[in-house]
Amino acid sequence: MAVAEHTTKAFDNDLQELGRMIAEMGGLAERQIVEVIEALTKRDMERAGRVVLADAAIDSLQRNIEERAVVTIARRQPMAIDLREVVGVLRISNELERIGDLAKNIGKRVIALNDGEISRRSMRGVRHMASLALAQLRDALDSLARRDLVKAGAVRVRDEEVDRMDSSMFRELLTSMFEDPGTIAASIHLVFCTKNIERMGDHATNIAEAVQYIIEGSALPDELARSPDADMHPLAVEF
Amino acid sequence: MAVAEHTTKAFDNDLQELGRMIAEMGGLAERQIVEVIEALTKRDMERAGRVVLADAAIDSLQRNIEERAVVTIARRQPMAIDLREVVGVLRISNELERIGDLAKNIGKRVIALNDGEISRRSMRGVRHMASLALAQLRDALDSLARRDLVKAGAVRVRDEEVDRMDSSMFRELLTSMFEDPGTIAASIHLVFCTKNIERMGDHATNIAEAVQYIIEGSALPDELARSPDADMHPLAVEF
Q: In whole angstroms, what is the distance from residue B75 CA to residue B10 CA?
């Protein structure tokens, strides 16, 4: 009994530490999104460079979380529900790492864009898309902290709006390329940026699903799951 | 002693089963690359559609491997080196899942491309790039099966060629868009295709690094690690 209690206590401490690490990682990922969108809309290449460099901290946190999670499983031998908690944390740290990579990608695009021309309208669109994706991420992390199933479920719904914006911005940029071939290079960079933002939304949705998995032990049916790496929304197919 | 032996035997069986599952997943990922490049170069939309659907099998294998790995860790409490083996398997299954997503993305692009014009030269380039990425993946999986450090190390070197081809194809497609705006939409789809192939190479490289981690217990220094989600090679920045 004393041993079991000791193990439970030790496991709870491990879980708390994992929770702290995930919160730190989530905070970093949020900040990377904010920073890189500022860098993009203000054409601040130095700031973009800092975002690119800062990604290493997120990668390193992910490795630490992975190690800590695996050691926790090996030492404490948690049963079903507790195991799910650790697996959920592992999944979420993977998703956050990928959001970090996407912010880094955008940072590289900002540098490559240099002073290439981008319309104000497109910039407004990017900013709006990014604010939606950021809100998704915040809600997903919040649903984790509060164990809030309703909030987790709402993240997916918002994802559809991000996808729609990505498709409409793509069509808009395509039109501007037709009308003014001089904007082609800059527009392609921006197409990649919006695609990266759209994928951030997918990863935020996956985090929300991991929260559902932790709480309920069930994921959504496979056919509903968004592919985190999908670089294209079905809506975008028809153009 | 009997208990320890029993545990060791059971752990070995678990490891073997995990190895079998990874081999199956690797085989599926290889086939998806072959199929989707055939679909692209032959403009076979039906085949592309099958690739998109077949991705679910890879996703499901990844979940199974994750569960099996975590249960193995919890039940057998492996020590350092054995733990590394299981963590390595977990990482590799993540990378394979992402390669599968990338093949699916290309499948969607093939469908979106429809009968949009693509030059023979570009198609040859795509085919060549894909054969390089496929060779990387095969070598990475082979280095895992044979525990071959030299082969694992060689995967990274080949990755540079894939990156260079991606950059040169990008410049080529950009030129064709300037010269003939009618090709813009098709060319953008192809830019995404080559980017997806380039990222397959990054994931193959990550698999090779996971093999090194399993064998040697050390990963390459962080600053050398390729970002798996990087949608842009530094070489591509200057255009």
A: 9
**Residue numbers in A near B195 (CB within 8 A):** 192, 231
Q: Contacts of residue B93 in chain A, CB cutoff 8 Å?
A: none
Q: Name the residue in chain A with its Cα closest to that of B239.
A: A112
Q: Classify A65 in phi/psi space as left (phi over 0), alpha (psi -120 to 50) or beta.
A: alpha
Nearest CA in chain A to B53: A223
The pTM score is 0.86
Q: ipTM of this model?
A: 0.82
Closest CB to A192: pick one of B73, B75, B231: B231
Task: Read off the DSSP letter of residue A236.
Answer: G
Q: Which residues of A fall within a CB distance of 8 Å from B220?
A: none
Phi, psi of A155 (to 5 degrees): -60, -40
Asked if A41 and A123 touch (Cβ cutoff 8 Å), the reply is yes
Please give, rounded to a whole number of angstroms, the shortest distance from the CA of B88 to a CA of chain A.
11
φ, ψ of residue B77 to 5 degrees: the values are 40, 60
Residue B156: CB partners within 8 Å, gap ≥ 6?
Answer: B205, B208, B209, B226
Tens of pLDDT, residue by residue over B137-158, are 999 999 999 999 999 999 988 8
Question: Tell me, what amino acid is at A137?
Answer: L
Look at residues A11, A99, A20, A115 and name the one whose alpha carbon lies nearest to residue A65. Answer: A20
pLDDT 10s digits, A155-187: 988 889 999 999 999 999 999 999 998 899 999
Show residues of chain A in contact with B56, CB under 8 Å. Answer: 222-223
Q: How far off is chain B from A176, nearest CA to CA, in Å?
A: 11
Ordered alpha helix ranges (H), chain A: 2-41, 45-76, 80-113, 120-146, 149-179, 184-216
C-alpha distances out from residue A148 to A214, A215, B2, Å: 11, 9, 47
In DSSP notation, chain B reads: -HHHHHHHHHHHHHHHHHHHHHHHHHHHHHHHHHHHHHHHHTT-HHHHHHHHHHHHHHHHHHHHHHHHHHHHHHHH---HHHHHHHHHHHHHHHHHHHHHHHHHHHHHHHHHHTT----HHHHHHHHHHHHHHHHHHHHHHHHHHHT-HHHHHHHHHHHHHHHHHHHHHHHHHHHHHHH-GGGHHHHHHHHHHHHHHHHHHHHHHHHHHHHHHHHHS-PPPGGGPPPTT--S-GGGGG-
